[in-house]
Amino acid sequence: MLERTVPRDSVFRWRMRIEDGGREQAELRSLTEYRIDDPDHGRHRILHFDQPRFMSGTTLLARNRFEGEMSSSEADQSGLWLMIPPSTHPRRIRPEDRGFQFMGSVYEYQDFVIRSTRRDTHWILGEHNVNGTWTQVLESIPRDINDSPYTKWVRYVDEETHEPIQIDYYRGRESPVKRYRVLERERVGPYIIPAVSEMESFEGNGRMTLEIVSADINAGLDPEMFMPGSLARLSDLAPG
Fold first, then answer.
1. Which CATH superfamily is domain 9-237 in?
2. Total-model pTM
């Protein structure tokens, strides 16, 4: 299995573009993403929307601690939470609701959950050139068919950065139902990060593009930010 090297924490500001086959014009949004990837605190992320105005303050928290890595109390603090103003109390997303679309995009809530590698069976299928980049092709299938609405994932992992530059999602058919692609990358310090990425649905003709506006790597984020009770105080805890 390839080993990944990621920063301890990071802050990204994104420009989001949502295209829908039924709309004449694309919908534009802006958001800030906070990430932490720390053995002591877990692998968590926050998406905080700034624009458009009706979405300002809407915040999604994804907390990921894997079975065998956490106590029972920590398990209770893992999962997904959504806070929509004017409420200051985040609502936990139930596992059975994770298949719903996230805020009208082609992402589903479950796409923000990092699965433990022990929940799936993995095969390396070989190498494949994706737009000039050599990748290892990794197929993952849930050990329990009821554990995920996806029947398998196929990841194309860059052999240099060890990060996926394409992920195909399947639901029981031979062709994928949606595809994530990294369209452009840029270097920030020692790290190569996605500068432009895209998630495309092959079922509903939808497409979402994320374009980076700014990146702050190893920003010294406070782990307390990534607790459900802290979302209402995000502006006080976030740097800058």
1. Lipoprotein localisation LolA/LolB/LppX (2.50.20.10)
2. 0.86
